[in-house]
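I have been asked to look over a protein record a colleague put together. The record follows directly below this note.
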Amino acid sequence: MNAKTWVAQEIELKSAKTYENPFEDVDIEAVFTLGNKTITFPGFWDGGDIWRVRFALNKEGVWNYTITCTDKENESLTQTGTVTVTKYDGDLEIYKRGFLKTKKHTPYFMYNDGTPFFYLGDTHWTFCTEEFDSAGDRAGDIECESHFKYIVDKRVEQGFTVYQSEPLDAGYNLSKGLFESDLEGFRKLDERFKYIAEKGLVHSNAQLVFCKFFVKWERYGDLDYISRLMKYWIARYGAYPCLWTLAQEVDNDFYRVLKHQTRFTIEDNPYKFMADELHKYDPFKQPLTAHMEYFSIMPPPGMDCTSVSSSAFRKVKSHSWWAYQWSRKADEPMDYVFAKDGWLNGQGKVCVLYESSYEGLATGNFGARSKGWIAYLNGLFGYGYGAQDMWFYKSRYESNKDANDGIEIITKEKKQSIIWGESIKYEAPIQLGYMRKFFEENAWHKLVPRFDNLSFFIPDKEGFHAIATDERDMYVLYLCNIGYETGRLNYLEYAEYTYQWFNPRTGEYLPKHTFYPDVHRMYKVEQKPDELDWVLLVKKK
């Protein structure tokens, strides 16, 4: 067998023996060795008498493998062989550089070779229901052979690097066990996982089911069963470039105080166990988190909110990054508290603005665009965008009321009329591509957030900016106030600087100018070119 580095391959085995409950009666695993290097992949039952080992190998050479079976009498589920692995020679960065990893006290994801990874995600909580072999009935004037593939391809074209998913309506029922009737749902997931990987996106995915369904399972408290399911998920999807998120809003207790529908607290949260089991079986130890509950400085009465400091996962060893849920209205000052908490108290882990206001549901173009800049310049090195009828396909969620993001009003009539064939044409994803290009041109991974620190910037209008710097050599200032106000850069060095306006709506730079700080080491920034959001890039010569 031949393979390329980091690219998934598969071995199929056919059992000569029949089992009453294949999922629980027998296990297989494959151990691959190259010199003193060993990688172990669990195998999985895929219906009838078929078992599979899905694997990826990360080093060139001739690997030996041995597949073993817990049923020692079933030789048909054992196998030995070799895989000749050559270096990936395509254009996709995730296979050229290797799957993602984290490094303590490094605030961004990196490829396996250490290169910084720019996280720009698109959200699809019901991706299982998106038509895979047709455009469906909500494509509008979009002509395509696959709803699912069209959106993936479009996001790749626009510069996105991550696909965010939750397996809502996946088509299986795991309450009592995993049976033949559940496998069609997993096969739907298979073709989607595979396509996402083939396009070079990292798949930030939740496991199994949404929390409110999980707690109602008949086998909810069966730890051996839950462990098997975690192993099964890794067996099917651990050979693809992934980030693990467990489930939506399970850090810390799924709003238990408000909703009274979960059976766990912060202390006995079962997702802690699930996290460690998933990590245990994952051959590449890909980064893992628990999607956090919504955060607000002024939460609704009775509602729990999660911050980094209050997380249920602070002592979970397998947990390696923070998946924020954070938003603000565009006409309200930023509080900076939540982002600061991650930067100062986040245990040296990566922070990502994983879920925020979705375009066409709770915010408009400005809100969707600005949150990416606000995230990256506040030390959240990742942003998850979402659009109406894509973040939750055919959903009526909050469609019976108007939304006001502080600048734009999205009426209930508008929400109800939006189809994915329209929202795929939104400008914000294109503009976020401009943002990515800007940051990659300006060494984003060296930037340190300065929040509301007046020793770097004194705003004319407080709470409407985000600033990060590379020491005193480079400043990136995002001004998101509606108006012309700017402010003063503070404690600059006595040196010549350049400044240049960047338009986040068009991706264009205005001409470059030079300046020297005044005797107080300050510089008063000229008024913005117009009343909308602008980015100021300042560099020491």
Remarks:
- The CA atoms of residues 467 and 477 lie 4 Å apart.
- The radius of gyration is 24 Å.
